[in-house]
Amino acid sequence: MIQTNRALPAEKIRLVLWDLDGTLVDSALDLAHSINGMLRQFKRPELPVQTIGTFIGDGAPMLVRRALGDPQDESFVREALEYFLLYYREHKLDNTFVYDGIIPALHAIGSRSGGAPRKQAILTNKPVRPSRDIVAGLGLGQFFVQVYGGNSFETKKPDPLGAKTMMQELGCAPEETVMIGDSQNDSLTAHNAGMWSIGVTYGFAPESLIKAPPDVVVDTPAEIAELLR
């Protein structure tokens, strides 16, 4: 069901920025397996997949820190992060898949009738290298003009730097841009950058959208396409 907090002017939208994890793809199992691989390496008890899922969304360093219980030893955290990234690099596509309905939605949004094709791009807090590898490995590359990750800029979402850079590079104004994501990081990024926002409830952190309500909330990718048709 589409829930509207502020009417989104679909006809004015020229740029669609997507979150990756929990929005375009379900990567929870591969992230959890990689975190547990890291925990085993450092003789720490493994965590349930659902618990690790609540740690996702603020980038790899924060994911690792949360899984370790926020230790004070920064050198240990860096060592653990390095191991996690190496492990995840090898296993990032073991179980990760594109959500049902995303491919048709990407086609519909990008090739709207009665106007110039919209540009679509990805802005995620996941490191950029695995993000681009996942996009390519799952055959999504054709839809996106750019993919930026959590280490592409000095700051991560919800800081608006990445979104503002993307808009500047692609020649679109905030009022012509919408951010789509599954967490408050995405709706806050949109707010901080002056953009429109769509929140999805099928992802990893839909409860966080209550804390920072987006302009529109949807339950399925098909509803995103309906909004932006």
Q: Could you explain how this protein is built, in words?
A:
This protein is of the alpha/beta class and 229 residues long. It is built from nine helices and nine strands. It has a seven-stranded mixed beta sheet with strand order 1-9-8-7-2-5-6, with helices on both faces. α1 packs across α4, α3 crosses α4 and α5 packs parallel to α9 (221-227). The radius of gyration is 17 Å and the shape is elongated.
* Main sheet: strand order: 1-9-8-7-2-5-6
Spans of at least 5 consecutive residues with low confidence: none
- Classify the secondary structure makeup into a structural class: alpha/beta
Please compute the radius of gyration using only Cα atoms: 17 Å
How many helices in DSSP terms?
9
Strand % is 5-15%
Oligomer: single chain
Average predicted confidence as pLDDT:
95
Main β-sheet description:
7 strands, mixed
Shape: elongated
The amount of helix comes to 25-40%
From N to C, what is the helix and strand string?
A: EEEHHHHEHEHEHEHEEH
Features of the shown structure:
elongated, 9 helices, 229 residues, alpha/beta, 7-stranded mixed sheet
Write the layout of secondary structure elements.
Layout: E1 3-4, E2 15-18, E3 25-26, H1 28-41, H2 49-53, H3 60-67, H4 74-91, E4 97-98, H5 102-110, E5 119-123, H6 128-137, E6 146-148, H7 161-170, E7 177-181, H8 184-193, E8 196-200, E9 216-218, H9 221-227
In a few lines, what is going on in this structure?
This protein has 229 residues and is an alpha/beta fold. The protein is built from nine helices and nine strands.
